[in-house]
Every structure is written in C-alpha cells, then in structure tokens.
Input
Amino acid sequence: MTEATKASVPEPGKPKLLDQVRHRCRVRHLALKTEQAYVNWVRRFVVFHHVRHPLEMGAKEVSAFLTHLAVEGRVAASTQNQALSALLFLYREVLERDFGWLDDVVRAQKPKRLPVVYTPDEAMGIIGELNGRRWLMAMQLYGGGLRLHECVTQRVKDLDFDRLEVTVRDGKGEKDRVTLLPEALVEPLKQHLLRVQEAHERALAEGYAGVALPYALAQKYPNADREWAWQYVYPADRPSRDPRSGAWRRHHMDESYLQKAVHVAIRKLKIAKHAGCHTFRHSFATHLLAGGTDIRTIQELLGHKDVSTTQIYTHVLRTNGYAVKSPVDRFLTSPPRPGGDPPSSAEG
Output
C-alpha cells in the first residue's frame, strides 16, 4: 500500500465503513431496501478480499469479485450489476475516490425477456381466491398497475375517489405519478378505511406515537404523523421498531402478507407460470394495450421514463386517446365483496 493510500484509510475512532455507507444512503434519501442491499454488497466485497479496506484495492479486486459472482455464484446479470452499483456508490459517494478505472468496469448485459402475463381469467381467478385486505391490495395491483411496495406504502391522502385516481409517491426512481383507481374498488375501499380510521382513533387515545413521515416532514409538520391523511391505507396490525430511527411506530403491511397468499392461489388454480404479485402490473399494461389504450398513456400510468420500456408489452398498438378504463372494471364478473377482514384492535 502506498503512502498516499495509507493516509486515506480511515483513522481509529471514525465511523465504521458500513456505518458510513448507511449514513450516505440516508443523506441521498435512498430507499431502505437499496441501503440494505448496498451494505450487504460492500460487506461481501470486503470479506471476499480477506477484510482488506476498499481504499487498498482497485480495478483488479473489483473485477475479481464480479467475476466470482458470475462464474462461481452464477448470479443473474441484474444481480451482478447491483453489486457493481453498490461498489460504485462506495467509492464515489462514501470514500469520495472517483478513480478512472471505475469507468472501465463493464456491466453485465441483462437479457431481454418478455414479461410473464396473466390472462384476464387467471388474474381475476387469483383475486377471487383472496379475502379482506389481500383482495383489496390485489385489486389495486391489477386495477392500477401498482408495484407491491407502492401499494403497501399508500397513504390515505393519496386516494382520490371522485377522480378515480391514486397518486404514487416516491415510486421507482423517486418519481411521483398518477394511476387508476378501479371504480369497482371504491365502496369496498371506503368501508376498509372506515375500520382503519376507527382503529387509528383508538390508537391515538392510547398514546399512539404516530406514523413515520418521509424526509424532514416530521420537523416541518410536528403533528402530521398523527393526522388521518398521513396514515397508511394498509397499516400493520401492531407497531414495530423503525429500522432507521429506532422509534416504535405504526408501519405499513409487510409485502409478504400478499405475496404468500398469491402464491397459494396460483398453486391452487394450477397456473403453470412463474408469476407473482408483480405479474399483475405486467397484466395491467398488456390488457390495456389489448383494449386499445394509447401506449403513451400506459407509459404515464406505469411511470416508465422511456416509452421503449413500455413497448416490451406489444408491437401492435391500437389507440383510443385517453379514454382509459381499468381492466378490473372490464373483467369483474361478480359484485364487489364488502369491506375486508376485521382489523385487530391495534390496527390504525
């Protein structure tokens, strides 16, 4: 190690490397999942090279690690690229060492694959196997093209029943967008929110600490965390410790709550597809295109940055302007089921 590199290695008493990564992720407002993934990749990189500090390493070590992932670990191209992104973040954002060799590292090419799509009967069949909050959530995934994380992190203020719209906040790439709220979901969702609001008011009376707010809104609006508009549409049954602040707060429903039920329904219906919750989003786009919806409209509804991403769903388009109707409203064959499973006494 050169004298210059030795001088760059953090001195004893400074934050540990992984803590520095976490801190920088939070400064950049990266999602918790991204933070966890980056910390994990940096840890694996350091351990792979026998706990050497990253400032002691260079292009040779980065390439060796990525090659190991591809050859020995047989990871997918997207996984290898995520590892590379984590290391680029480490050197450029945390260690502030933008070496020229980082630009020479080649990213693995992600293969072009067509998305798995449910037929309308399969989509509505799976939804028909669900009950309560799971039914509501799946209806939103298919009826509005939401990602699962976007669904569980919805807040009450993001629903517009009059305009049949859902505002997605901080979606992929930290982008906001507006998508569809199926008309068939309006009354069941209103009934669900009435029960959630009752539980929320009980929780306030019991000293509820409030919901977590994004960015610095908790300082700007000190009481907003207890206001009804900011509460999650699908709150968890019990408070839990915030993984970042350590405070006990009401979090949103865990994604596995719906994922497990959808997988059970797929097996029960004997649908021979490698599918899950995200398949509802692909089906939403494909079925809108098949119904003649303009591809630019679908691009906006999905939140795609470039229309070329949306074009994967079809090569033959029929436009009908902006007269968009949710596929749930076109394919629902039975009356909307009421409400949902009764929330626990702690739900709010």
In short: Residues 1-8, 315-323 have pLDDT under 50 and may be disordered. Residues 186-205 form the longest helix (20 residues). The CA atoms of residues 186 and 255 lie 22 Å apart. Strands lie at 159-160, 165-168, 177-180, 240-241, 248-249.
